[in-house]
Structures are given as structure tokens and as C-alpha cells.
């Protein structure tokens, strides 16, 4: 799959969410509590996303995008994970078994609240992390 990401720092999260809601036909956004664990990867980025407020299945997500300012074209692939804690243990076991590999070592963790609203083929997402950001992703399936 492929999407276009545009991220910007915002000063007034409430005002920004109101504008995003208007752009998405007044929808009330869906709130997603996400806990992302990032792993070292030989190429691109690899993260395990666990949804904290839902019974939904977690996701292992690989994505590749440039490290640059402004809009970014991003290729990504997702796989459902029913037991995310066991997957982390699996990665740790893999590292111990293959000491020459530096992949799958935890690189970082991010917890965020995402307010998600959609309009046609567009999805707008406001993230509350340590800093306030508004993100826009135009999702296209190829």
C-alpha cells in the first residue's frame, strides 16, 4: 500500500481538530490509543502497534519513506498480530540466537492518542504525543 504523509506542528489542537472535523463533513473522530514499539531494521522502519482501547488485533507495520521535511510518499505493509507480547519475546529470542544480527532490537517507543476522521479517500489524523501535531494521510491502495 502507499500513502502521502504531511505532518506539521500546531499551536492550538482544539482549533485544528474543529477545522479537520469540518473538512470531514462534521464527523466525530474515532479516538485510537496507540502504543508503538519501533525496531531496528536493515531497511525502512518496522513497528509493532498495539491498540490500547480496543479489542482489535495489533499490527506489525513495515514502512519505507524518506527522512525529509514536507510531504512524504510512504510505502507500507501491515500484518495482523494476535499476540504482540509474544512477538516481542520472539524477536528477543531471535536476537540471542543470531548474535551477528542487530535487527529487531527495540529502537524506541511512542504512545499517542490519535483522533481519526475520514472523507472519501482521505484520512485526517490528529495525534497527541509529547508534542501536538496534525497529520494528514491520503491513503491510496495500489
UniProtKB/TrEMBL annotation:
Q: Where would one find the signal peptide in this protein?
A: none
InterPro entries the record matches = Adenylyl_cyclase_CyaB, CYTH-like_dom_sf
Checking Gene3D superfamilies in the record gives:
Hypothetical Protein Pfu-838710-001
Q: What is this protein called?
A: ADF-H domain-containing protein
